[in-house]
């Protein structure tokens, strides 16, 4: 065989290898969705000792009473903790705790605890979402080194329900089903070390291109959602508005963001609303891509798929979500009130993100843990440039069983060095729960609309 022939054969082999790496899954693999796997790609079977049961369909609409303001009742209200992990027995359970959780026991030995309840595989979604996930499995491919998606549109959801690498798991979190267009008022607090805090209230409006009638197909092709965030309290911050047009491939087309400053009465482009830019009114305790536990472009990290494991993670936190609670019941010195939380044993995907050479981010490494049933990110350990564990994120999962979408009762981010934390997404004192089915148009998400949204 000539050298030319060998080189030609090598090129063909490499091309085939690249194609196999980038291709969507085969029809045989996709057929596992809804059979041996759940429709969203989790293992349908339970674990060997039965502590994780089999998935049997999850919660359905009407699983518990819904009050007049739309707040969902707790379908597991009668459940009692199986046991509680404390500083005295944490060593017994460390194989099912993240390094960050173990660090919280060391940082707050007298107050931090993990109440463990029976595992309820409550995850469920509408049939149209299951159908979309199967279509994604057959057609969606990563492009630009995994930083974008090919053959994916916003009505698909769950880009890679049978993932082959770390960035595909991250994309499942980013493309998970979040319900229909919605409006909600959420609260954030960044308590001092002694527990004193000021609540910042923000009105969120979120719309998805496939649910809007006036988004041209070519314009919406690279967009996941449109969102505005308006600060409504306290008075000194009220009227400040942020607008985001969230793109899919943010290397090809960066996230578009604008900010309206009520004091200056000016609308400006806001490129800092991304990566490690400062989080809104967070007192420096979180950055832009900490929202939703993680969001935005994945291009600054190399993503390694470590594998699956069983962990005690925040799950079915309906008690923490209850409108009967006041924010003062939840927000305590050092960490939120762990007596109000619920943890369960679930399988998670572990992904390690390391900042690429030549890129920068205040978090040099992230260890991320995604619930296998919902693809929602529930635990994140953030490391600084020295390799020191710095911040620990916990997402207190709940299923909105009326919508069939997984969300958070709260998102906490603990700074182990400062001894402070931020908590985001509380709704307990809101007048209404999330309002879905909003008929938004593109006119609601233009820079010109920011000034009107921010009038105090």
TrEMBL record:
InterPro entries, alphabetized: DUF1329
Residues in the signal sequence: 1-23
One Pfam short name: DUF1329
CDD domains named in the record: LolA_like (cd16329)
Keywords recorded for this protein, A-Z: Signal
Keyword set includes Cell division: no
Protein name: DUF1329 domain-containing protein
Organism: Pseudomonas schmalbachii
